[in-house]
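Hi L.,

You mentioned the student needs an example of a multi-chain input paired with its predicted structure. This one should do, with 510 residues in total across all chains.
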Amino acid sequence: MAGNAREPGVSVASRVLAVLGAFDAAHDRLTLSEIARRSGQPLATAHRLVAELERWGGLTRSDDGAYGIGRRLWDVGTLARVERDLRDVASPFLQDVHRTTRETVHLAVRDGLHALYVDRLVDRTTAQVLSRAGARLPLHATAVGKVLLAQAPGDVVRAALTDPVRVTPHTITEPGRLHREVAEVRRRGFARTAEEMTPGAWSVAVPIALPGGGVVASLGIVVASPRRDLVRLVPVLQVAANGIGRELPPGWTPT
Amino acid sequence: MAGNAREPGVSVASRVLAVLGAFDAAHDRLTLSEIARRSGQPLATAHRLVAELERWGGLTRSDDGAYGIGRRLWDVGTLARVERDLRDVASPFLQDVHRTTRETVHLAVRDGLHALYVDRLVDRTTAQVLSRAGARLPLHATAVGKVLLAQAPGDVVRAALTDPVRVTPHTITEPGRLHREVAEVRRRGFARTAEEMTPGAWSVAVPIALPGGGVVASLGIVVASPRRDLVRLVPVLQVAANGIGRELPPGWTPT
DNA sequence: CCACGAACTTCCACTGAGCGGAAGAGGCTG
DNA sequence: CAGCCTCTTCCGCTCAGTGGAAGTTCGTGG
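Structure written out for the whole complex:
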């Protein structure tokens, strides 16, 4: 007997990665069976890999049997460029902005067709506006996203503005209007949103550019009321953004 | 012909993990050869694994040929418990403490015989006191460390205080004195250090406990001058620590 | 201009690590 | 206690993984 029928062309490495890929923001704790299902692998195979990952410290298992990402993988993730350089440099500036405005501050880079939130600062008092470090939100519905879009290659802009997702009743979904808006962001040097991503949230954002000129990230503020003077915060953001750009290693890319 | 002589007993998974393990705080960018050397694998083997990791997005290669940790792994690391729950809950409180004191704030958990810094807040103006998120420092030479030690199992305390490393001229290295100090920390509810880890740095820290009673983390402040009134900051820390403890999911552990 | 070395990439035939169906163990529920 | 679920262990077949070696690219210095 002894069963076998190894699915061909699948490397062990990719199986390991499939296990890691089974975890995401909405599924940060999984049972063995869930991991097997979500990674598309037989239970026995998943079991073996998970056990090895746990032994190494990449996964941890809690009393209830569920697995979560372990410290070892957290350590490794911490070494990523996005995290290390940008966060380290930007963190004090985010604090400056937060201290003078008392509003939620966001730091994001472009990741494909999404804005990837690298860091954020929230008041305990302020309503949770969503978004945590690591979150990915659509480019066309967020202020940081529009800023990043304004500096992105033409094909990215086209792809992002083709059939844009409607997130709230206020989300702008007409490609034409979005193209015009992105052009205006490029001209004016900042972007705004009004409840386009989250009901009850208004925001502005500015680009973070290297001294050389390349835009590498975006810095934004989110407030919970339709303040007309939101634009007045733009200079605050710009000072911080310039500071961050200057302190980044020359030639830095978020890749 | 074709050479071979596969080293036995080494799983592919462990080879993948060895590649990841080649990266650390001091080596966040490595060339292929370095990865091969540091992970103890033949060049050709490392090459294959690295290529697969890169394809998945776990590693990125920059123009100069060096590899770094990629976004995909950053994402995964972001899902770790230490990161997610603790950071999310504690972040606003760290900001509160920072706003009222204007000093460097640290959040740490115990990881074996080290204090693992999960988050920190620094002024741009303040001298960089060392430590970034992800750093591991000895338990006996830091305030957060002493706090964590005060609540640790007996064998951990013994192991940590046996032959303690001398970091600065002020580091306390007599096991007896350290044991007494740890007992006092337990009694008093907070710990201090005076240039024991970094010359020119003084600190206090308090435990973060769950409503149930278990200490899960430590919150500390570092200042750059030997202020006598450092102890006056303890109540500020305690208020924040209580708040964090209350908001953590019941039964939370940093594992 | 070419020789030399170092870092990287590709190739390929052998073989043991990995595979997964199946059976067993434990636990919860109706 | 039968039924169902999740987890763990077992084992013989086989193909994915292996690593020495050859080829490629690049930089250096003679």
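You could point out the following to them. Residues 1-7, 12, 15, 41-45, 48 of chain B lie near DNA strand D (CB under 10 Å from a C1'). The two ends of chain B are 50 Å apart (CA to CA).

Best wishes,
N.
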